Amino acid sequence: METEKKPEVWLRGPVEGIPPLLQPVAHTLLQSREEVNAMMMDFPEVFLWIKPSGMACPAFHLQHLAGVLDRLFTYARGEALTDEQRGDLIAEGKEAANNLDMEGLINRFNTQVDKALAQLAGTDENTLTDVRGVGRMQIPSTVIGLLTHAAEHTMRHTGQLLVTVRVLQN
Prior knowledge:
Elements: H1 23-40, H2 58-76, H3 83-91, H4 102-121, E1 131-134, E2 139-142, H5 143-169
């Protein structure tokens, strides 16, 4: 029996509970989660920290996917990063600094997507153009700018992870 392939998330209709203007962000995050989970399902864990041709290793992308969502959604709430978040950023891609296996890395990403979706559901569309500072220098952005960039950046690293995984498996 062949599994029926679903259309991409954005073609499945609105995500329940997400404000209309934030649907594209939710669609992107859900699409990324589906793709990451599918591509990593049979990926040999022995390749997790391998950097083919100097590219970032799969573990880095998995760490960064979760981390970038955490950081950008923190800024969108108008909050500064915690010491733990800054430490996680520094540890991205460093095997010795992390004690996460593949399951832990994927679970961390999935949890972060869930947190992001919950934040989107609670975001008032009237705040989307509110200014938010990014980083220590408080470079100005907006709530919608941060949420959109979080989705775009997540999908960018999903694509990079896909290429890296395929190179390592061949």
